[in-house]
Design brief:
The protein has about 500 residues and is α+β, with helices and mostly antiparallel strands. About 40% of the residues lie in helices and about 10% in strands. The strands form six sheets. A three-stranded antiparallel sheet has the order 5-10-9, with no helix packed on it. It has a two-stranded antiparallel ribbon with strand order 1-2. Strands 3-4 form a two-stranded antiparallel ribbon. Helix 4 crosses helix 8, helix 11 packs antiparallel against helix 12 and helix 13 packs antiparallel against helix 14. The N and C termini lie far apart (about 70 Å).
Length: about 500
Amino acid sequence: MVMEAASRTSFHTTLVPTLHQTSPLKTTRISHSLSVRRTSNNIIRCTISTGSDTSKAAAAPQAIPWGCEIDSVENAAALQKWLTESGLPDQKMDIQKVDVGERGLVANNNIRKGEKLLFVPPSLVISADSEWSFPEAGEVLKRYNVPDWPLIATYLISEASLMKSSRWSSYISALPRQPYSLLYWTRAELDRYLEASQIRERAIERINNVTGTYNDLRARIFSKHPNLFPEEVFNMETFRWSFGILFSRLVRLPSLDGRVALVPWADMLNHSCDVETFLDYDKSTKGVVFTTDRAYQPGEQVFISYGRKSNGELLLSYGFVPRQGTNPRDSVELPLMLKKSDKCYEQKVEALKKHGLSVSQCFPLQVTGWPLELIAYAYLAVSPPSMSGKFEEMASAASNKNTSNKEIKYPELEEEALQFILDSCESSISKYTKFLQASGSMDLDITSPKQLNRKVFLKQLAVDLCNSEQRILFRAQYILRRKLRDMRRGELKALKLFDSVTKFFK
């Protein structure tokens, strides 16, 4: 299942340190009405009334009172009407319900390969420079030098809370009330469904980053300006929503010095692994566009690329897993770890730390192979005390910060290094096998039918991810076993030849 979004970049840095330098599917919803008003003292007042019993929804995140169901075409159509009235040129695409994704942009005319589409003007793009409907709040955040990500997240909440008073109300009404994102998985669900995949650790880290960013903003800014940032509006649930929107929809525009932005209408485009085109700012037309890399007939869904991401990364941000074997950039993280019984353990740890690596390190495997850094780490892990003088070189080569990409070779360690990688690979395979075997009989322990559907959906996503990642591990296992077999056969052949020569001279 594919959600509508458009992004070329993943969120590489943690949120909190940057600040200090200055899905779910349709579950049982709680009906809310939200009213926000400004007093003469510039205080935002927010009241939320609940139309159903919250105890039944205790396990699920509280529903956000703005946005729409993920498949709402009506809200998206209203967005297109507002954008057209606000200066968006006539489009060769319409919003429709689609097979790939809940809703997407479908060609309403013949579209040629190499044709530019969209032309969304900067005035209809949300960025860190966008004008706030409530400017006092924006001025405070900029005074604290809040980075773009948390700034735009706060901006989105501020505008959403103003409902029809915000110029972005039509856009916000078309956004999903609960984005497809691992931000909405509970810790128990992550532990249960993603226990075999390293994406679980990435998801926990991301959730912690978002939580830490909100807590930091609350402590440093919101608590000092409660009139501008009332907790009824600016709370953990609304930040979970806003960051879910950003992770799935924020784009980086290379021609604008890599500036990040939300691009209404463009973010209705779905992802295809077969497409290479992406969004960018076009200086000649002064709008955000993308150039098609294939032709489309009327009625065909138009796609872009969200970036060269693995299936796990696509699940992490967008909440879907491509069909197995369809993503040429798919990869799986293979964890490698030094053995504490190693006589040179402390010395190797120091060498790794010097180059920004840890005792336990993950490296990406693809069907086509693995990075040079993985081999270098394996050399270090199996090297004997007699090679201590080479530890520094091995650790440097294992670091992805090493820009030389120099391949190091130690023939005397080759067999042992490959066996070390194979052991780690087979250990990971066993974890996937254990989960996949148990998933068929997994007790979901759910009483609500809608919650049951949600759990089934999450489990299916996890099964799809595990199957695709295990497939890559099986391929690596096959290659490693074959290499080791050939090496050992060669050694045996050489040994037999040596014995025959020795016997001849005797």
